Amino acid sequence: MNEEPYRPLRIRPAAGTNRELFTGPASAAASSRGGTRPWTIAAVYLFDAQRLLDELRARGVRTGTAASVRAAHWEAAEIFPRANSELLTVEPEQARLLRLFAPPTDGPR
């Protein structure tokens, strides 16, 4: 049986109406001591914080430090580079500016 993947999200009960998150590329959980991690934006998410909190509580998930948020919630909240959320649409100029912070690719530039 395959379980749905989860990603951690720090969310508190007094989070407000919406919560936006800018994420860099996925990487292994490891110390960055002695290394560098450039400031990049690979994706942007916008969560309806109250709705998400209600759903987490209904599942018995503790909130505050790093709540386990289902991959389906992350996918539905994505506003960049894919427009999956009904809460906000990123305008073409906004998307162009966000792409300026895209992580480097391995291919030719």
Quick check: average pLDDT?
Answer: 82
Oligomer: single chain
Distance between the termini: 42 Å
Instruction: Classify the secondary structure makeup into a structural class.
Output: alpha+beta
Q: In what range is the share of β-strand residues?
A: 15-25%
The beta-strand count equals 5
Q: Give unreliable regions as ranges.
A: none
Helix count? 3
Order of helices and strands: EEEHEHEH
Q: Helical percent range?
A: 10-25%
Order of strands in the sheet with the most strands?
2-3-5
Computed Rg: 16 Å
Characterize the largest beta sheet: strand count, sense, and whether it forms a barrel.
3 strands, antiparallel
- Shape estimate: globular
Account of the protein in words:
With 109 residues, this protein is α+β, with helices and mostly antiparallel strands. It has helices at 49-58, 71-77, 92-99, and strands at 6-9, 18-23, 43-48, 67-70, 78-80. The radius of gyration is 16 Å and the shape is globular. The N and C termini lie far apart (42 Å).
Topology of helices and strands:
Layout: E1 6-9, E2 18-23, E3 43-48, H1 49-58, E4 67-70, H2 71-77, E5 78-80, H3 92-99
Antiparallel strand pairs: 1-4, 2-3, 3-5
What attributes characterize this protein structure?
single chain, 109 residues, alpha+beta, three-stranded antiparallel sheet, 5 strands
